[in-house]
Amino acid sequence: MTTRRAFLRQAGVTAVAATVRAAPITKPNIVLIYADDVGYGDLSCYGATKVKTPNLDRLAAQGMRGTATHSPSATCTPSRYALMTGEYAWRKEGTGVLPGDATLLIAPGRTTLPSMLKQAGYRTGVVGKWHLGLGTGSIDWNSEIKPGPLEIGFDYSFIMPATGDRVPCVYVENHRVVNLDPKDPISVSYEKPFPGEPTGKANPELLKMHPSHGHDMAIVNGVSRIGYMKGGKSALWVDEDMADTFTSKALAFLQRERASPFFLYFATHDIHVPRLPNARFAGKSEMGARGDAILELDWIAGQVLDTLDRLKLTDNTIVMFASDNGPVLDDGYKDQAAEKAGTHKPAGIYRGGKYSNYDGGTRVPFLIRWPKHIKPDTTSDALLCHVDLLHSLASLTGQNLPDSAALDSFDLLPAFLGQSKTGRPYLVEHASSLSLVQGEWKLIRHHAGPKTNLTGNELGNDPKDQLFHIGGDPGERENLADQEPERVKRMSATLDGVQKNGRSRP
């Protein structure tokens, strides 16, 4: 009966989607602002009171706010992989949090979100954090760096290779490091330090921000990172200018491509560590560097919205805002994020955060605006996931996906547009363990890992299965597995099937 209900529910989604597709195919511009480590409770449009986000609040007021939209994973690389491919990252080996010199995770030639939209006639661009690997082996940072974003569907790319706390601390535009002096070549190692190069561990007196754990290797801009690096002095980024640099490149893309349908994937560094916002924002919140970074992120969103207004593109542009995973306070640096949080609850009412099996790990803010198509100032509690954007936007733009593509992406276009309250019949959440959300229930599969990580972030591991009635217990406090053994058995069987089938796309 459970399988039959799920089938009928999905059939209803498909019927509504068919109605939407029956309308003339349109090709609105699409902008996805994909923030980093922003929790459900971090924005004032989601109830935050210790920090204000007026630009994101404006986006919410002019569109729809999702209350049950999930990132595909509780960490960054797997979420981005699933977003780009429409496939759960846990299906593919090697999709954990990558080092900065990792090989490209996505094979050129496969269907991706940008390649699908490019096929539909879009100009496609990525600006900001990449963290999906580059090249096919050992990377020579002093010559052409490929394959990369351009080989999986983007026409333009201006990225950081991995994260702000990992080397190499340089920007890569299309296939080359920006501002590199060939007389000062870059070398990168994740195995051993370079002789004569200072490190955070050996030279803490050189640091303006100190690590709380790890993050004690190469020093760039007074901050020690993960991994070792030497050379490339003229190409090194300045953390405090990063938001300005990425935003200028994103706005230039909008200006340059304004005459054609475009897709901009703007993956911000904020609010990931190291948190070193520009002087315009430093000290402006009540919550230290993390609160200041939220203000900077809100400014970024405002710049995008204002530019669309100035270019008269607002009415024909879908703007989405989301986060790659839930929040984290101490993520390796002593920036007083935890000490200055006060009464602020980064994950809102939800338990856990980044890295966690609990809902705070993947239930994240999701805002979407498309004037005249999405009703303003609305909310949706439909169960959605970023992995569904590939199939849903293919539906919007009239693209038929190959059966072998987007293996876990559902066509939920009506729900994303607020035209249907029906979302996914179930969702697999991914952290150290796998969880199944089905209706008002959530099963976290047993995993005998540590309860917390080095900085006390709650991981949600348990050697026994955990079952929560999230409809009445959204904070996942009362484990009902012993009281509901048959439900655990049924949900376990469903989760086993999703894993063994190799796909879940209808």
Low-confidence stretches: 1-23
CATH class of the largest domain: Alpha Beta
Describe the largest sheet: 10 strands, mixed
Structural classification: alpha/beta
Integer average pLDDT = 95
> What would CATH call the homologous superfamily of the largest domain?
Alkaline Phosphatase, subunit A
Termini separation (Å)? 18 Å
Proportion in β-strands: 15-25%
How many separate domains? 3
- By CATH, the architecture of the largest domain is named 3-Layer(aba) Sandwich
Q: How many helical stretches?
A: 9
| Shape designation | globular
Query: What is the H/E order?
Result: HEHEEHHEEEEEEEEHEHEEEEHHEEEEH
The level of helicity is 10-25%
Count all strands and give the number. 20
Give the CATH topology of the largest domain.
Alkaline Phosphatase, subunit A
Strand order of the largest sheet: 7-6-5-4-12-1-13-14-2-15
Radius of gyration, whole Å: 22 Å
Notes on the structure:
- The protein is an alpha/beta fold and 506 residues long.
- The chain folds into three domains: 29-181 and 236-416, Alkaline Phosphatase, subunit A (3-Layer(aba) Sandwich), CATH 3.40.720; 187-230, no CATH class; 427-501, Arylsulfatase, C-terminal domain (2-Layer Sandwich).
- The chain is built from nine helices and 20 strands.
- The chain has helices spanning 2-22, 54-61, 76-85, 113-119, 242-256, 288-310, 389-396, 413-416, 485-501; strands spanning 29-35, 64-66, 69-70, 123-129, 156-160, 172-173, 176-177, 187-189, 219-220, 223-224, 228-230, 262-267, 317-323, 366-369, 378-380, 384-385, 427-430, 434-438, 441-444, 466-469.
- The chain has a ten-stranded mixed β-sheet with strand order 7-6-5-4-12-1-13-14-2-15, with helices on both faces. A four-stranded antiparallel β-sheet has the order 17-18-19-20, covered by helices on one side. Strands 3-16 form a two-stranded parallel sheet.
- A hairpin with a 2-residue loop joins strand 6 and strand 7.
- The longest helix is centred in the middle third of the chain and has 23 residues, at 288-310.
- Residues 1-23 have low confidence and may be disordered.
